[in-house]
Amino acid sequence: MTSAFSSLRINSDRMLDSFTRLSVFGSTPDGGVNRSSFSEAHLSARKWFREEIESTGFEFRTDGAGNHSAFLPVIASEKKQSPTLIIGSHLDSVPNGGKYDGGLGVVAAFEVLKILQENRIKLN
84: buried, middle or exposed (CB in 10 Å: 19+, 13-18, 0-12)? Predict the structure, then answer.
């Protein structure tokens, strides 16, 4: 499995573009973000994230606690044969959090999914 992943590289320009677009929601004059849970800024960021997920063909899910998740489409017959990868972050921030509070982890994880999809890497 190591050799299948060793040549993969993120698209840093695309990731930066995603991060820049996400950073608009709740941006503060000093360059940080203020996206308290379920605030207007947080809900707008969640809407943006869902639209991003759906535009790439990933499966979007919301669990009972309101967490949003993106999944690579998996064919049922391949599930048991493929490794599983779980990456997590958050779209909300602490009050007046830094620009990178949660958002960077979200776009980094999303970029990993895009690279896996583009390279047809099968995961569970």
Answer: exposed
CATH assignment at residue 77: 3.40.630.10
67: containing domain: 9-118
Residue 14 within a domain? yes
Q: Find tokens 């899910």 and name the residue.
A: 61
pLDDT digits (tens, 9 = 90+) for 65-119: 888 888 877 655 555 666 777 888 999 988 877 888 989 999 999 999 899 888 8
Dist. CA 3–CA 6, nearest whole Å: 5
Domains in the chain, number: 1
